[in-house]
Amino acid sequence: MSILEISNLSLSFGGVKALQEVSFRVPENTITTIIGPNGAGKTSLFNCISGFYKPQQGTISYQGQVLSSGIKPPRRAALGLARTFQNIALFRGMTVLDNIKLGAHVHMKSGLLSALAYFGPARREEIAVRRNIEQRIIDFLEIDHIRRQPVSSLSYGLQKRVELARALAMQPTVLMLDEPVAGMNREEKEDMARFILDIREEWDITVLMVEHDMGMVMDISDHIAVLNFGQVITEGLPADVQKNPEVIKAYLGNSDIDSLRKKLNPEGVAA
Amino acid sequence: MRIGDAKQTYEADEAIWTTSTQKFWFGLSLLFLLVFPFMADSYLLYLGCLVGIAVISTTGLNILTGFTGLISLGQAGFMGVGAYTVAWLSVNTGLPFPVTLLLAGFMAAAVGILVGLPSLRVKGLYLAIATLAASVFLHFIFAEWESVTGGMGGLSLEPAHLFGWSFQSDFMMYFVIVPLAVLMVLAAANVFRTRIGRAFIAIRDRDISAEILGIDLLRYKLMSFALSSFYAGIAGGLFAYFYRVVTPESFPLSMSIFYLAAVIVGGMGNLLGGILGAAFMTLVPEALKLLTSALTPFYPNAPVFMSPMLEIIFGALIVGFLIFEPHGLAEIWHRIRRFFHLWPFKN
Hints:
The structure holds two protein chains of two kinds.
Chain A: E1 2-13, E2 16-27, E3 31-35, H1 42-50, E4 57-62, E5 65-66, H2 73-78, E6 81-83, H3 96-103, H4 112-117, H5 121-141, H6 156-169, E7 174-178, H7 186-203, E8 206-210, H8 214-220, E9 223-228, E10 231-236, H9 238-243, H10 245-252, H11 257-264, H12 266-270
Parallel strand pairs in A: 3-8, 3-9, 6-7, 7-8
Antiparallel strand pairs in A: 1-2, 1-4, 4-5, 9-10
Helix pairs in contact in A: 3-6, 5-6
Chain B: H1 10-13, H2 20-39, H3 42-67, H4 75-92, H5 97-116, H6 124-144, H7 146-149, E1 155-156, E2 160-162, E3 165-167, H8 170-191, H9 195-205, H10 207-212, H11 217-243, E4 245-246, H12 253-266, H13 271-295, H14 302-324, H15 329-341
Antiparallel strand pairs in B: 1-4, 2-3
Helix pairs in contact in B: 3-8, 3-9, 3-11, 3-12, 3-13, 4-5, 4-6, 4-11, 5-11, 8-11, 9-11, 12-13, 13-14
């Protein structure tokens, strides 16, 4: 069963066709990855799903319901669609803890009056959220040593991890990750891959990810969709996608099969 | 980083004051504020009341400009709304002053929401101009709606009364203004340790990510405007009871700039900064005047020489602070605190 279903989605900016009749499914409780060369429309697709772009045509169904363009980003967040950004979108001046707490915003209820008074309902809610964040998220992502630090003072890899923590605090059903390991070193990538696998298995969250690192994509994905020039070339299991000649062409633009195999399947080359 | 302040509970970790030193200094400041009116002469009392009013209004503007990132030049206008509400109510109804003050706050908040409506579309300097237009418009209403505001002559009101007490003297007003100021600053501090305050800061720092986290921008921007103008309305109401006359000229545009300067000099997005900024902006011109009169016995023509210099010195002080400490007086305070954390073992 698919939790997210994109059908015939088209988006253009002026004359530029960012997405052309894109259709694919995200099966529930899988790690689904969208791959494709730069400018293929991967991030545009994410922006359509989270409600920043309004596609001219096509539908996005989430849990069997069509998300009309009238459903704005905050509402989609409340429905359980969380995401991270390619260029980290944390609040740089705030501490790690405050950033993560902001993720829980939609699940909190305190109004202005109880916030002004603090003692009473607002405090109970704040403490409950704090406890949940500390015990479930900070512990899980191993960022307890930096919780008091402002985000701007952290390394790139840690910032990515904090952004993931913030998205988890939203208690999502579908977690969209835009290039979660871009710019990371090997160790950081391995950590992130482990977190993503755990999120799927222990938290029962469906992961939809855009990523360029083929090693990681092929290792952890259950389902892959390949996008090129705004169109879906193919979708399927990692092993099938790797062999697809269309994909090979999209990535290389010529018939240099060997170097492609190397790129798509680094493990195979090593073996 | 602080050492030796490990906490046992999340409640203790989320408190406003997390160390005993901080609690000690807060208690000492409260004690000072309590004893001050009994020691001070009438001039100092007058200044104390002025600082109190300025702290309330600056804290309000700090919520809007410092924490939510929405520049406003309408603060004096909102104070005017509060002051006229109090004046009109006290002339035309017999409501006790806590009620009129509260209504002044709500009235200003309502006007604030209206003025804030464009803030979803316009930001930065454009919003400053939009709020400037609103304050000109409010000034026009104060001056022309004679049946309610008394026109250019304004409104005069009786001293505040409650339970047979008359709040006529500065001494009595001090005990209205200063506790209110303390309470309102604490309430603002509370807001910034809950979801509401975090949402404000999120909007200031990066409004697109705020939206992706489920924060409704218009709702929170209007909430910030409402809260900020509520503070302005209360400050304006206190202003009305303090001077007991309200005219359109009581709330000129320069007053809005005064408050914006107080927020910036004190430290944007820092509540302590708002307090320090308000005190600085109110007291430094007075201190410079005192300096002038202290010099007069030695240089008989000091007043002639100094009076035009005062404005220049005041302006230069503001510019100086901005150059040497762009994060405001609050940052200077934090630096002093950090110095004493490990003093005398490290400096």
